[in-house]
Amino acid sequence: MTIHKKHIQQINDELYDIFESSFDEIFVTDANGYVLVVNSECEKNYALKVEDFIGKHVKELQEMGIFYPSATLKVIESNQAIELVQKTNSGRYLHVRTRPVFTNDGHLKSVISYSRDLTDLMELKRKVEEMEEQLENYKKELNEAVDLEGIVTKSEAMKKVFSTIQRVASVNTTVLLLGETGVGKSRVAKLLHQLSTRKQQPYHELNCAALPEQLIESELFGYEGGTFTGAFREGKKGIIELSNEGTLFLDEIGELSLSAQSKLLHVLQDRTIRPVGSTKAVSIDVRIIAATNQNLEQMVEEGKFRRDLYYRLNVVPITIPPLRERKEDILPLVYQFLHHFNTVYERNVRLSPKALDAFLGQEWKGNVREVENIIERLVVTGEEMITLKDLPFAKEFAIDPPVHTLPEMIEHVEKEMVIKAFEQHRSSYKVAEQLGISQSQASRKIRKYVSDSTEQ
Fold first, then answer.
1. What is the pLDDT of residues 360-401, one digit of tens each?
2. Who contacts 70 (Cβ-Cβ below 8 Å, separation ≥6)?
3. Cβ–Cβ under 8 Å, residues 189 and 249
4. pLDDT at 60 over 60
5. CA pseudo-torsion sign 299, 300, 301, 302
6. Is the pLDDT of residue 403 over 80?
7. Largest Cα–Cα separation, the chain
8. Contact 247, 207 (CB under 8 A)
9. Pick from 19-23, 249-253, 404-408, 451-455: least confident
10. 233 or 253, higher pLDDT
11. Measuring CA to CA, which residue among 347, 374, 269, 279 is closest to residue 315?
12. Do 282 and 240 form a contact (C-beta atoms < 8 A)?
């Protein structure tokens, strides 16, 4: 008899452990709706102690605003199992599954409800919907962008630049492109050539800052054979002659020596060139597009650039504004480069909304070239979804807000501990063990803190 009582006690203890260890709230009433027993999950869902529920009628609890609607009342009325979403007095949302229990003769005996907290899931769903809405807005902005021969823009400033390009492309006048490093002067030069009547003819580029001064003239104008040591015996055509009937883009024109400037002026005035070491002039028909990030007017005043050449080049000046003055172009450029490099490297990399926001918040001192370089790096080295922490400039956006109140300080420390524990173990069970909390608490905190950080 004693053994039998111990066995029953052991079973009761095990059943109680199961009852208390449930991840769901368990809520049991009699056939009339009076609470018989609840597990401790109720305390978390309603911020009330277990003993506050026992003996109370569910209608009274509903009228007190503890929860609404009462699933138990609906089961008592219908004698059928139901499911519903319930809101608690603490603002949480519960998925409640309630079923009737009948006696052997078919009378209602009790009602058992199982409730699972959906608050974090619904919050996550809300965030996902916000992200999707934000992405849709970004895509809408992208669809409003103008694409002119591969150059996209949404800004009014660049649309004016495009308008000027379209007007002057069909004539042979000299164009001077002005703007900071990386704004896209070489792209605009190519666009001018592609829209011109010379588009089937040669197009060449020369960066005047990339060659030593002693080689610039021979590269521009060519040379006769045997002119200097190391020269080709038969001589060599310069890039101006190679561009005959086409377009020549001279980047960093401010780096030309005064001697080379003088000869270039002669080309623009007389449409002839004289190779180094030659006495014979060669007629040419070439359109010159020059570019610089320097202030040529100031260089003229300082005697570093020929005034007459400046006036010859400055027939149609086109200033390309920096990216910080046309932020509406950032996202179209990001998407353009993302599509391009995904295609080149056979990837499917995407950017999270917060990462896109970070791109919008940058100053981009390197302008379009800097955006392009960073997108290529992210496509080559990143995961499929690029979040804020993956960006090379993420530290500028990852500064935690100042913590002032005690609850804020506690939450700040708790967040750091949960994230650190999860990164170490990758398991809610082990996080719970390390932090000394229940597994359900650990799961909720992981969803709250780790999910928030990955969405960035």
1. 888 899 999 999 999 999 999 988 889 888 898 865 544 444
2. 33, 58, 59, 61, 62
3. yes
4. yes
5. positive
6. no
7. 127
8. no
9. 451-455
10. 253
11. 269
12. no
**Alpha helices (H) along 185-325:** 185-194, 213-221, 239-242, 258-270, 296-301, 307-313
- Token code pair at residue 143: 């669809």
Asked if the peptide bond before residue 69 counts as cis, ω within 30 degrees of 0, the response is yes
CA distance 367 to 349: 22
Q: Return the structure tokens found at 437.
A: 């909390």
Position 454 scores a pLDDT of 44
Model's pTM, two decimal places?
0.58
The pair of three-digit structure tokens given for residue 137, joined into one six-digit string? 């807005």
- Give which of 241, 165, 178 is closest to 206, Cα–Cα: 241
For residue 423, the surrounding DSSP H or E stretch is helix 406-425
Q: Which two tokens stand for residue 147?
A: 């694409």
The residue type of 318 is I
Would you call the peptide bond into 402 cis, given omega within 30 degrees of 0 as the criterion? no
- Encode 217-244: b = buried (16+ Cβ within 10 Å), e = exposed: bbbbbbbbeebeeebeeebbebbbbebb
Lookup result for tokens 């003819």: 201
**Complete edge-to-edge strand list for the sheet that includes strand 175-178:** 203-207, 247-251, 287-292, 175-178, 316-319
